[in-house]
User: What shape does this take?
Amino acid sequence: MPKTLQNLFTAIIALLLTGGAAASQPTADLETAVKATYLYKFAPFVTWPDPPGDNLTLCIVGADPFGDVLDRAIAGQGYNGRPFRILRLPVVSTDSGCAVAYLGGSGDQSVASALKALKGAPVLTVSQNSQAQGMIDFVNQQGHVRFRVDLAAASESHLKISSKLLAMAVSVRDVSGGPQ
Amino acid sequence: MKRVSNRMMQVIDHHRTAFVGLGLTVLVLASVAAGLYSENLHQRQVIQAARVQASIVADSLSGALAFGDQATVSQITTAIRANPEIEALIVLDDKGIPVAHYGETIALLNGRNELRTSDGFTVRVPVAEKGVVLGTVILKQRSEPLELRLARYAGAALLLVAGLSMLTIMAFDTRALARGNRRLREVMEERERAEAALRQSQKMEALGRLTGGIAHDFNNMLAVIIGNLDLFIRRYPDADPKMLRFVSGSQEAARRAAALTQRLLAFSRRQPLDPKATDIGRSIADLSDILRRTLGDAISIETLRAPGLWRANVDTSQFETAVINLTVNARDAMPEGGKLLIECANARLDQSHAEAGDDVTPGDYVMVSVTDTGTGMSPEILSQVFEPFFTTKPVGLGTGLGLSQVHGFVKQSGGHVSLSSEVGRGTTVSLYLPRSLEVSDVPVADRIVRAEHGRRDKIVLVVDDEAGVRDFVCEALTDLGYDVLSAENADQALDIFEEGTRIDILLTDVLMPGRSGRELADEALAHQKDLHVLFMTGYAQDAIVHNGKLDAGTRLVKKPFTIEQIGAELERLERTGDS
Ligand SMILES: Nc1ncnc2c1ncn2[C@@H]1O[C@H](COP(=O)(O)OP(=O)(O)O)[C@@H](O)[C@H]1O
Assistant: This one.
């Protein structure tokens, strides 16, 4: 499969129009591309307690699976008029200025320690296939990229997550605990 | 106030067409405006509905579209499909790739965000959350189907047409109303004229009745006076000549009084008339001597007679009296002298004359007009001159009966009089006398040979309730050589017939207490077929007279009469009876 944008779009169309029935197992590239778009698309369904400043910063902490796919995906987009900005960090802290943090994990900082570092801070944490899960955790389900939502953790960080996003989640861990 | 509103009505009347036109135009424009407004409103509603629908779809789709949930997207679009007003829908993802759709809409938009077409409105709205564009929804909202809209406008148009026709009908209606009003006014004016004429003729009628009643009694008294004076002269031809002079003076005065009562009777139209086909021109020519003497030297007289003059059906002597009366009036109006013109001409009066004047029957008339160059009359005087006893002349000179006689005579004859006068210029009185349809003149043989005195072997029964009249008549008849019987009333007279007494002539008053002279005559004739009947009356409104004219074959002697007159009548009666 050629790694061109053209082909990627064609693939997306095929996926959308056929309901993905033909492709039971998304290829790694496709999966990464989808996740890259999801990553910034989570943002509009989330409300932060404080205005996030001139930009809305998407942080990639540790391993970066997206590369420039993400950069291209966010081109021209903005959260309430604030352009998205990508920040790639080896280590994250509450002072990093992240609104959304994808925790790839690395030797410098594991996903779990990154979560610990951000605990309670108004940062939407995103993880995948990790033991330690962020507020949103990508999962693979019948060939589709899906996600789980930890509403309790989001609430602790004073983030409001739209019900529209919750409706898309395969599972939601509510404030009272346990998946719905 | 009334005038002002009338004026306004006239203005409205005059500009009615313009008003109606304006009204119609306003109505049409208003309807068109209302239609356009309604259409515009509908369009705006369609646009609004499309925008709202698209926004709702976009909002409900955002999550599913953002995270590739095809099933949910399809579910939502399918739900939208149930709404018949949404003709087409397409959902694009953030890359502009169609995710779900039905109907055809994209081509229509051509890059624009909104497109209005005759059949609906297409709108494109972004699917976005917090400014992050996640996709696009394009939706076409159907406008109300054309036929439905047309039906709605047809309803409005129907109302419009109804309104228009109502307005038109109203306009025509008011026009008809105005016409009706005008006609009504005319009819009312006509009626007022007719009523005025009727009042005038009723007034004359009442006056006639009054004067007629007085004249009747007067006439009877005069009959006694004249008769007795007559008798005195006959009985006592050798009396003191001085005394005879007194008597004949009294006789003269009584005759003048009789002439006056005749005029009164003429006015009251109770003068028995004996209309004959009369050559008016010749009558006037015959009168010329008298007229000249009446007028004197200061007044010239001219008579004009139109060629081919018809004859009039009038009582000749009454006509002559009328002309003399008019001449006397003309003379009195020209004390300084002047000119009198008498014209005779044929006149055909048509409906327009009939409508203009008082009760004029259209038809052929012989017109006689008497014109003077005298003082003339003011309109006030002119309106009263026909009334009896109306005069402007000093006591002893005017009686106020001259024009009354003229009016009464002409009316009784079935004609009419018209007057025109101008103060200082003169007066014209025109008589319209009914044209005679008789072919030839009835030979007039009025001069009767005086019968010789001496016995005649004829019995006359005299019936009159007035003793004075009865006695005079009886005396006069015996003087003429008749045997005379008398009775006070019809019953007494019939007793005489029933006794079997042979009567040659019945001389009876007409109006008596009990049975009338006419009824008496009828019963008497039943007893005696060859009986001659002669009525005496001073009062024409009697059973023997119809419409003031004598029945054919009836003999009548007018009271008061002289012995010669009654003698002549009796002889004429005997002659006609013998022939
Ligand atoms: N030809 C006329 N010119 C002017 N006035 C007239 C004429 N005929 C009649 N009159 C007026 O009409 C009045 C009535 O006339 P009439 O009835 O004949 O009665 P008398 O002549 O006796 O007065 C007269 O008194 C006179 O005023």
Notes: The two ends of chain A are 38 Å apart (CA to CA). Chain A has one domain: 3-172. The interface with chain B takes residues 9, 12-13, 15-17, 19-20, 34, 37-38, 40-41, 43-45, 77-81, 144-145, 147, 162, 164-165, 167-168 of chain A (CB under 8 Å).
